[in-house]
Amino acid sequence: MHGGERPAIRPVQNDPVIGAHSPLRVLAGHAGGARRGPLAAALAATLLLCAVLPPAAASAAASSALLGSISQSCTLTATLDVEHGTVVAVEKLTVRNRSRSRIDALDLSVLPRAIGAYRADGPVTVAGQRAATRWTTGTNLRVTVRPALAPGRAATVTIPFRLSLADGDGSFGARMGLTGGVLNLGDWYPVLSTVHDAHGVGDPQVTWAADRIRLELTLPDSVDPDQVAASGERVGWDPARRRLVVEVRHARNAAVAVSPAYLVTEQDVDGTRVRVLTLGDTGEAAMDHVAAALRRYTDWYGPYPFPTLDVAETGVAEFGQEYPGLIFLGRDVLDSPFGIWHEIAHEWWYALVGNDQIREPWVDEAVATFSSLHALGIPAVTCSTLPVDLPITAWPAEPTTGDWTGCDGYAETVYLRGAVFLDAVRTTMGTDLFFGTLRAFVAAHRWQVVGGRDLVDAFRSADIATDAVIREFTSYR
Ligand SMILES: [Zn+2]
Question: How far is residue 83's CA from residue 88's CA, in Å, rounded to a whole number?
């Protein structure tokens, strides 16, 4: 789940299939507006990452198709001030053109700008030369590449920037902010993406897996290096410079959460080093769910894709947000098995098998929601009648806020009707063939960005009887 602004789960208090302690019930309370429970928070959190923008055609810039043909690696050097919420950073993004076309511009999604937290800290350079830049949307920074990058050639783009983060709220606050003593940095640096702007409903970026992302983090004296949650493995700690180095391979993004108040619970789960970082002594309880989810999803979808997993309590209570090898869970979501299971499912559906989260958010959200509900034995129910494959822009929103609720709202449609759809596919195919099909799909599309049609075609190929279900719930024909 990503946190959403207000997950719009229809009130289900009277629905006999929803147990008193189900996460959906919490969501129901949330939707009702009277109270907010852990589950509602969990779902809300799930919704968080979604935000976005109208696609903008840029003839000079790399198209979405081209983006899949760019290999990239990135080093982020950042000094973190956890007391004041400031980050001083330099990003070095190396891109290699593996397409057959020349690339004369790169579009970088800079989400912190949507909340006024971003400012340039010097000129952007390409191959050491100052480059022309232009904001083509509120959050899309177009960097001119001159001379154009020929097929097979590589160049390094250097971007100095600063962040000033404050107490966050809503879905954007769940991604980045200084809230409750936690500095959480998600979607915090310029990342190669399609052209879009921020949108208060849904997830805001489409990202391609980088060969490697390296984080070089300078920590304040107040923070122990163990109190840093991050995407990736720790490869170095220099106590004299207070510099922690973390690396991750094949990640679409890299996030960080830091707090001098973090308590750390660590466990090896079948070879994966799992750490739960919490502000209270709830780490053990959360770890039980994290370990169970990792094992169940490994059984369903294949091996967990990273050597490590950090689970970090972040400041906005009702939100959760997934990143490669790291999930953010607000207080309420942390208390919700549904929220934990939902976010961990995203490590397969988003981190490993990517999708266009703006145009086809159901591909990761519906599968993550279905996975968590099915694993926990909670029936999926919905009152939405809309196709589950709508883009996030089908729901009007401000750049950083939007209405996630309502019967035909984003959450009810993409998350819950999406889960109902997938459960209908499972019932039609049979459970073994259903999970076998998904496992094979994951294996065939590791680290890629897939289309929703690819997934429904996999169902059709496995069992043509699913075609009627696909037609009932989606617009794929
Ligand atoms: Zn989600």
Answer: 14
- What is the 355 CA–ligand 1 centroid distance (Å)? 12
What's the 46 CA to ligand 1 centre distance in angstroms? 4
Rounded to two decimals, what is the model's pTM? Answer: 0.89
Lowest mean pLDDT among 11-15, 78-82, 329-333: 11-15
Taking the centre of ligand 1 as the mean of its atom positions, its distance from the CA of residue 122, in whole angstroms, is 35
Strands 308-313 and 326-329: parallel
* Distance (Å, whole) CA 14 – CA 121: 54
| Ion ligand 1: residues, Cβ under 5 Å | 1-2, 46, 365, 368
CATH code reported for the domain at 351-473: 1.10.390.10
Extents of the domains making up the chain: 64-258, 351-473
Domain 64-258 has CATH 3.40.50.1220: no
Say if residue 75's pLDDT is above 50: yes
* Rounded mean pLDDT, 315-322: 88
CA of 349 to the centre of ligand 1 (A): 9
CA of 304 to the centre of ligand 1 (A): 17
Q: How far is the CA of 1 from the centre of ligand 1 (A)?
A: 2
User: Is the confidence at residue 4, as pLDDT, over 50?
Assistant: no
Sequence-ordered list of residues with C-beta below 8 angstroms from that of 165, at least 6 positions apart, any chain: 85, 86, 87, 112, 117, 176, 177, 178, 183
**Cα–ligand 1 centroid distance for 346 (angstroms):** 7
Residue 10: pLDDT over 50: no
Q: Please say if the pLDDT value at position 398 is more than 90.
A: no
d(CA 463, CA 441): 14
